[in-house]
Amino acid sequence: MSRESLLSGLEAGLEAPAVRESLTRLLARDPRFSIHAYRFVMSALSMATIKHHGIVPSNAAVKELPERQDHVTGQQLAYAVAGLASQEFGFLGYRVLSSWGIRSTGDIGDIVYHMIDENHMQKSPTDSRSDFDDVFDLRQALEDDYRIESTEF
To answer: Burial letters for 43-82: b for 16+ Cβ neighbours within 10 Å, e otherwise?
Structure first.
């Protein structure tokens, strides 16, 4: 998965009419997910791309390309979403994601493929929506397996 330019305009605080129109279509596509869910997945994509490739994702507006140097797999993105949620929200990570509509790694896949359909992300020929199915139990990863590390005791 690679990120596209339209949603990155939101990250810069720009909401031109074209961006608002595209977001309206994106949000209407699946009412389960809030705009926060889409923005969070985009942030996790940036984090995963930097982690795995050491580069910031490109803004090419192509729907499907051969494997790119900034490509992140569905599994890598799912782990990045969980990692970012844990980092940003701690033990409340699952509750925050859940309030935005993200309750499973499959939901992350739905968000990604909605963004691909609206040209906010791109995929390689080897990518599949099923890459996100049952990667891990999101609730367990963010709640049950959460550990508070402290050297104070």
So the answer is: bbbbbbbeeeeeeebbeeeeeeeeebebbbbbebbbbbbb
